[in-house]
């Protein structure tokens, strides 16, 4: 008993550390951290599936704000833990760095926090209830904020097997405690793709009210992909509404004692690459050795194939990595025993051997595929060759823009009204729709730190254009020159000339069009500006409400009505049709002056979904766009056409 008490104190101290610094364990206490709790428990169930012992995982969102995860695996062993002297189930849910996995036996490959997850979830939950069916018996126990409140107990015999975990996140820890069904679904779908044959379902029983306050029906989704990452690629190309250019998904797999690697790939007719890489089911957003191995082999195979078949002549330059990956949608998934994660966000696989392992897999299997499927080979090489020619043309166009101004000593665009400040973090560049609004903005700005670049004519839709057109485009060159940081492969954040890039367009349909054209350009060619929070949208007012000398600006119709009432009889409201209608003082006071204005920072929640949306909304094909508009027309507000 003494030992039990000592252990108990240590346990609570351990969990208290998690409660004091939750960010250290789950990243943050925002909605992301909240979802992380679910992923940790699901990961444990998926580990059981990877061990071949579990086939079905059910996630349920309950009306009381709790969530449950059930698997049909073995359940957690029921005995007393030999070292800790308490039930193993309690060990798993209360001791950091505990579980069956840490001794290196049991599971072959494992993602997650290696068993730390369960105790972290417990520490950060108002309560946790466990229902564990193991070896013919059912056991239950309950915790509140990490402490046992109902002891481990055998409830009798059962035919079931598997673990049921239900928990309610602690509202005193998290900023937000309402789970997002769609976010959880997206992650569970990804896991279902990565674990072929495992059936994962999610059910939302909360019936949360919709925008009209009406309860929504129960939602559920049942996921099972026998095709694994092949199905993933099919799904990605399908969701993008892209046209694939060869019929089959190329799939490769290799296994040795401690490594498994899988690659699935298929080209589509867009100009951008979609590549997702995973190690032990964890999305490696910073890439790593598996990604390098895949990319190197792909470039080598396609160049060798092109030379062998006379598609590239002796005098021709090799195809670059970017050339051979244009329009390529691929998923690379590896599993390994001792995964090393590196980089800023621990999102980069470090195991050096994995590079060679994936390289060899892709080199041999892709070469074989091309030999056996010459028609697909021809189509793929034609695409890579077209990309290569465009890149070469882009290089020439770029040099031409550089050479044009040798005497000026600078390559800043003529229309730019620059600011005096040189420290990037303090400066702002307004991209303004039209010369006339540009003129007003120049008058209204604070020239010490605000620069103005008027945009003439429609901005090029880069979704429909290769790089050569982007470089040669009269609407984009001034933007590229003013920002100074280059685009695509040449992008250099160090050279960025402004800390905030603020898109200032009219609050009408044309203005929206310009905004989306610019955002498409930033997303495709200067992504890091979005990732690192440099892109903003100005918010000009919709109405000026005035009476005599008194005037106020309204940003919504509700605000307009409120001001009208405030000013009383005789008050008028004149709607701004465009920025050009405001004088310089008005534009400064409402939209530009940091003391009064509102600007919206553009952020990126889900890069895959963004990629798909840009393709649907801005891409070549009309049909998916029409479908999208038809499905979403009912949500449009303030349409001013
Ligand atoms: C709903 C969550 O955790 N299932 C689960 C967990 C474990 C086992 C089976 C298990 C593992 C082993 C042997 C072993 C365990 N997880 C941990 C830890 N579902 C869920 N199903 N027998 C059963 O590792 O050898 C310890 S046991 F620590 F990872 F959480």
Would you mind describing this structure in some detail?
Helix content is 38%, strand content 21%. It is of the alpha+beta class and 641 residues long. The chain has 4 domains: 16-223, Heat Shock Protein 90; 229-398, Ribosomal Protein S5, domain 2 (2-Layer Sandwich), CATH 3.30.230.10; 403-540 and 586-635, Rossmann fold, CATH 3.40.50; 543-575. The protein is globular. The chain starts with a helix and ends in a 9-residue tail after the last helix. 40% of the residues are buried. Residues 98-108 and 405-409 have low confidence and may be disordered.
What would a concise description of this structure say?
This protein has 641 residues and is α+β, with helices and mostly antiparallel strands. It is built from 20 helices and 24 strands.
Question: Briefly, what CATH class of the largest domain?
Answer: Alpha Beta
Bound molecules: ligand 1YM
The name of the CATH architecture of the largest domain is 2-Layer Sandwich
Distance between the termini: 77 Å
CATH superfamily of the largest domain: Histidine kinase-like ATPase, C-terminal domain
Low-confidence stretches: 98-108, 405-409
Helix content: 25-40%
**Radius of gyration over alpha carbons?**
29 Å
Judged by helices, strands and strand pairing, the structural class is: alpha+beta
Q: What is the fold named in CATH at topology level of the largest domain?
A: Heat Shock Protein 90
Annotation, overall tally of beta strands: 24
Helical region count? 20
Question: In order across it, which strands form the biggest sheet?
Answer: 5-4-3-6-2-1-7-8
Proportion of strand residues: 15-25%
Largest sheet: 8 strands, mixed
Compute the number of structural domains. 4
């Amino acid at each position: 008993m003494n030992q039990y008490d000592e252990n108990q104190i240590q346990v609570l101290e351990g969990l208290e550390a998690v409660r004091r610094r939750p960010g250290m364990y789950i990243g943050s206490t925002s909605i992301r951290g909240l979802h992380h709790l679910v992923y940790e428990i699901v990961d444990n169930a998926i580990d059981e599936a990877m061990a071949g012992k579990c086939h079905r995982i059910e996630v349920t969102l309950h009306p009381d704000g709790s969530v449950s995860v059930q698997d049909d695996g073995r359940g957690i062993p029921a005995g007393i833990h030999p070292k800790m002297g308490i039930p193993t189930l309690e060990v798993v849910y209360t001791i950091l760095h505990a579980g069956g996995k840490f001794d290196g036996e049991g599971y072959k490959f494992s993602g997650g926090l290696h068993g730390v997850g369960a105790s972290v979830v417990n520490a950060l939950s108002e309560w946790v209830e466990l229902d564990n069916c193991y070896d013919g018996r059912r056991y239950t126990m309950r915790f509140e904020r990490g402490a046992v409140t109902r002891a481990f107990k055998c409830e009798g015999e059962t035919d079931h097997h598997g673990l049921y975990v239900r928990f309610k996140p602690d509202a005193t820890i998290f900023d937000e405690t309402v789970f997002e069904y769609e976010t959880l679904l997206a992650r569970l779908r990804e896991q279902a793709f990565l674990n072929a044959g495992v059936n994962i379902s999610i059910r939302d029983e909360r019936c949360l009210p919709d925008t009209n306050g009406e309860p929504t029906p129960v939602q559920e989704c049942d996921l099972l992909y026998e095709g694994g990452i092949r199905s993933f690629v099919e799904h990605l190309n399908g969701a993008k509404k892209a046209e694939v250019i060869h019929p089959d998904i190329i799939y490769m797999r290799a296994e040795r004692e401690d490594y498994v690697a899988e690659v699935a790939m298929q080209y589509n007719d867009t100009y951008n690459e979609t590549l997702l890489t995973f190690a032990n089911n964890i999305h490696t957003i910073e890439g790593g050795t598996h990604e390098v191995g895949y990319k190197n082999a792909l470039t080598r195979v396609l160049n060798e194939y092109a030379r062998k078949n006379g598609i590239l002549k002796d005098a021709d330059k090799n195809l670059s990595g970017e050339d051979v990956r244009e329009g390529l949608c691929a998923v690379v998934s590896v599993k390994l025993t001792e995964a090393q994660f590196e980089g800023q966000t621990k999102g980069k696989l470090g195991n050096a051997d994995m590079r060679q392992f994936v390289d060899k897999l892709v080199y041999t299997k892709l070469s074989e595929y091309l030999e056996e499927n010459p028609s697909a080979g021809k189509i793929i090489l034609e695409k890579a060759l077209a990309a290569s020619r465009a890149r070469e043309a882009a290089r020439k166009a770029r040099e031409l823009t550089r050479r044009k101004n040798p005497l000026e000593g600078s390559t800043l665009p003529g229309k730019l009204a620059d600011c005096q400040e040189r420290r990037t973090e303090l400066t702002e560049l307004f991209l303004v729709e039209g010369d006339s609004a540009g003129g007003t903005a120049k008058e209204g700005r604070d020239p010490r730190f605000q620069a103005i670049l008027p945009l003439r004519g429609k901005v090029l839709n880069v979704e429909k254009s290769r790089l050569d057109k982007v470089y040669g485009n009269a609407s984009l060159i001034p933007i590229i020159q003013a920002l100074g940081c280059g685009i695509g492969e040449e992008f250099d954040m160090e050279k960025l000339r402004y800390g905030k890039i603020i898109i200032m367009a009219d609050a009408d349909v044309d203005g929206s069009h310009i905004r989306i054209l610019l955002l498409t350009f930033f997303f495709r060619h200067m992504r890091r500006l979005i990732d690192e929070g440099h892109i903003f949208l100005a918010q000009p007012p919709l109405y000026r409400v005035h009476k005599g000398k008194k005037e106020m600006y309204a940003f919504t119709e509700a605000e307009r009505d409120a001001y009208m009432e405030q000013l009383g009889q005789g008050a008028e409201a004149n709607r701004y049709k465009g920025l050009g209608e405001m004088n310089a003082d008005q534009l400064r006071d409402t939209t530009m002056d940091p003391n009064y204005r509102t600007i919206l920072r553009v952020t990126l929640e889900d890069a895959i979904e963004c990629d798909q949306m840009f393709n649907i909304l801005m891409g070549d094909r009309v049909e998916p766009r029409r479908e999208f508009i038809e499905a979403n027309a009912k949500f449009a507000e303030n349409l001013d056409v």
